[in-house]
Amino acid sequence: MAFTFQVNSDKFIHDEKLLAKAESFRPTIHKAAVKPVRLLDPEREISRLGEYGLKRDDRIILDFGRHIVGKFSVDIAKTGSPQDAPLFMRIKFAEMPAELQAESSDYQGWLSRSWIQEEFIHLDELPARLELPRRYSFRYVEIKIIDTSPKWQAVFTNPQAVAESSADYSKLRKPEIADDLLSRIYDAGVTTLAECMQDVFEDGPKRDRRLWLGDLRLQALANYATFDNIDLVKRCLYLFAGMTTEEGKISANVFTRPENTPDDTFLYEYSLFFVSTLYDLNNSHPDPELVRELYPVCKRQVDLTLKMFDAEGRLMTDENYPVFVDWSNDFAKDTAGQAETIYVLKQFIALAEITGESGIESYREALSKIAGYAREKLYDPSRKLFVAGNGEYNIASQVWMVLAHVMSDDENREILRTMIRELFPVKGIATPYMYHCIAEALFEGGLKDEAVKLMKDYWGKMLELGADTFWEAFDPDKPEYSPYGSPIVNSYCHAWSCTPVYLISKYL
Amino acid sequence: MAFTFQVNSDKFIHDEKLLAKAESFRPTIHKAAVKPVRLLDPEREISRLGEYGLKRDDRIILDFGRHIVGKFSVDIAKTGSPQDAPLFMRIKFAEMPAELQAESSDYQGWLSRSWIQEEFIHLDELPARLELPRRYSFRYVEIKIIDTSPKWQAVFTNPQAVAESSADYSKLRKPEIADDLLSRIYDAGVTTLAECMQDVFEDGPKRDRRLWLGDLRLQALANYATFDNIDLVKRCLYLFAGMTTEEGKISANVFTRPENTPDDTFLYEYSLFFVSTLYDLNNSHPDPELVRELYPVCKRQVDLTLKMFDAEGRLMTDENYPVFVDWSNDFAKDTAGQAETIYVLKQFIALAEITGESGIESYREALSKIAGYAREKLYDPSRKLFVAGNGEYNIASQVWMVLAHVMSDDENREILRTMIRELFPVKGIATPYMYHCIAEALFEGGLKDEAVKLMKDYWGKMLELGADTFWEAFDPDKPEYSPYGSPIVNSYCHAWSCTPVYLISKYL
């Protein structure tokens, strides 16, 4: 796994008309008060919380019994002699217990330490109600007393969280799912999606808390199957459309606080997935007017993309505009990128047809050439597998070629069977994002049982490990794995892992 | 050096009438904006502060050029790519540079870690103006970036302190002091006093930030010679008088936030110094009405004290009501305590005479007996020194017997000369509080040159070491000495060290 920070100097335009539309679709944030249900310390009871006087190095861990995105407050008093020193304490928020065991001082990862959810608080005067102003993503809250004084102890009462989400549970339509494990996977997927539904579809409410296009595509699909909040998808599409580079390129993610700002990070297929997200929205809730309005933005992405293909129809990858596919950089991505382009080009042509635009013949020709190159040069009929530019046969190439329906249904099924036989079990892929693609390809290729098995093995394993929500990264062979070297900055509620709700609804 | 935390269960009365008077004398807090004058890093200039982009582990140290008690604020922006992570930083406040070199994680002292003046701050959205709500005591502010992200840096502009004090410099009357060092000692003493003048006379604005009676006595004396804020002294007297134990004992210190609360700590002569403080106030600004009002409180302290003397007139010390004299517990304090009682009894009788109370003959008799015991049993005419109960000849015994004028002026001078010859240089005493007593005894005994030498050697040495204000603890033989094992919790601006302004005004 590796990740390279991009720093680019592109100039961006702000289309105020589109951004005003994004603003008009800003969602209501629903808030709900939540109380902790127990203390993790087996010797202490939550009902007796106010009886415990805590001194230097004492700690309590509140368990709210569910994942929460929101704010925390608690009443703090003292017992003993008058308060002859400030109270100094650390408050740590954790989605999973593993985070509580990690000490921030040990963290040496490349990702910013600032994501560690812990605060150091001085209170000069007790009693006080502590209301932390920041939003956290957590189920557990550890309060550690760094110091009182030898003369008095701190006492905590009325801990409370206010959970925030723009997901409206009254709109949720859960299908009947006979299989218990699949049903539980579905539920955790719904929670994961809901927790990421905030002012935008966030990728992770703990970290990075912003709108990524690759995540948005999957969140939107999961959303149509559950909360069906169309306005929130529109808001996100307008945000991307309203802030492109001067040449029209969409960045991989945007910030909305303190003001709308596009990031200077670009990923090849993330730009293209703007097309997919619009296509999926229109599929789910046909809206030709919206398609016509945003079609020029789609076209610009496709035009920029097609410049990267050579005369034969082969994708010439550019490390400054990388094909993502998955976090892993341990496999060749050019063939997968070629397939993603085909996948999107088909959707783009369908959108163009809706707009009634003439002159899209050139795009049909481009699709034909690019798909033809894939079939003729990248498919190895002797192996029944697609090959990457470096001669490598990897899962990602097969998966995306199947999703793009480059070959016939029968050939796709054969490719997938070969993949399962020769390339499974999955190795070196640790994101639910890529696992989603594998599962969907299996469904698309008609291998439903294999798809269900993969879902149960992967998402089911997270549940087995205590997940309330699905994770940003998970390698079933290395359950402790963190791309950052420590669980303390892992995101245990991450949008791109919510897709079982979509897969189950669509294929089962 | 040692300090024992007292935890007592005495019940206290709150005399609302007296506390209302305390409230009526609550001072105005004067506020003044202060800008830093330089950066401690020689390679950086304060005028170019806004040009420095700071990333993980970078730090800047602002030097405000003077001691400040107050609040801190600064504008924070970012430079580089969009802010893709919170800013996390540590802000450390220091009265002396030595505090900046000490790491809080290394601190293992018995005093609460919560006094360490450092905050850990997350800012999710930049730009922002950071306005820290707590009050600090500092000249230096170190800002250390714990993390940004690899894509952007933090930029600081417009750092500002708002200094707070109830001292009114327009009232200050500095005498002409020809000697440069004494003049500088005077100035630092004034600053020390002013910085401790807040809502009450605090002992130290960094730590413990409350009203101690032993410190109040000295602050009040220094105050009459400088800012002459009579109301603030009255406020403090009413606070002590308004919150005694049910048997009438005054505690060693009181808290005024969040509400008026007496501490459950009692020191023998601190209770008695209520008498001294009222006596000194009336000496400075005669107010027979106030004397009459507070006389019963004085009498109660004296009555409680006299119960601790045996039939011969000897103080039977009680470890639950310890004689303080100095922080050191390495010398016997009974003879000094006997002397302090004589010192206060004389003042009490003078106050009683003002009230016109009859029936104070018994107090005159008690004084006579206690002073007689001192002269006959505790004075060793062969050595020309007072001896403590354990046979020890120590400085504190001589000093307090001279201050109490137990012997004649000639004998006092002889005692002091013997003390200088046999017991000097001072060893094992590290508080300006006790050094003040030594200096004052030398002045009282007519040894002006020796007193000046002591002042220059002791307070002058602090100036030489870079003091802007005088310290809670200082041992000239061990300049690095901290009673807490680390300078990080030392109070470098401590009320009981401000007395050179009083000594110079009174004796020079």
Can you summarize this structure?
The structure is a homodimer of 508-residue chains. The first copy, chain A, contains 14 helices and 13 strands. With 508 residues, the first copy, chain A, is of the alpha+beta class.
Tell me what you see in this structure.
The structure is a homodimer of 508-residue chains. With 508 residues, chain A is an alpha+beta fold. Chain A folds into 2 domains: 16-28 and 183-507, Alpha/alpha barrel (Glycosyltransferase), CATH 1.50.10; 30-165, Galactose-binding domain-like (Jelly Rolls, Sandwich), CATH 2.60.120. The first copy, chain A, is built from 14 helices and 13 strands. In chain A, helix 5 (230-242) runs antiparallel to helix 6 (268-284) and helix 8 (334-355) runs parallel beside helix 10 (395-403). Chain A binds chain B through residues 5, 7, 56, 80-88, 105, 110-116, 119-120, 122, 124-127, 134, 146-151, 207-208, 210, 255, 257-258, 261-264, and chain B through 5, 7, 56, 80-88, 105, 110-116, 119-120, 122, 124-127, 134, 146-151, 207-208, 210, 255, 257-258, 261-264.
Q: Provide the CATH topology of the largest domain in chain A.
A: Glycosyltransferase
What is Rg of chain A?
A: 25 Å
- The fraction of residues assigned to DSSP E strands of chain A is 15-25%
Oligomer: homodimer
Series of H and E elements of chain A: HEEEEHEEEEHEHHEEHHHHEEHHHHH
Compute the separation of the termini of chain A in Å: 32 Å
Q: What is the annotated CATH architecture of the largest domain in chain A? A: Alpha/alpha barrel
Helix content of chain A: 25-40%
Largest interface: which pair? A-B, 44 and 44 residues
Structural class based on helices, strands and sheet pairing of chain A: alpha+beta
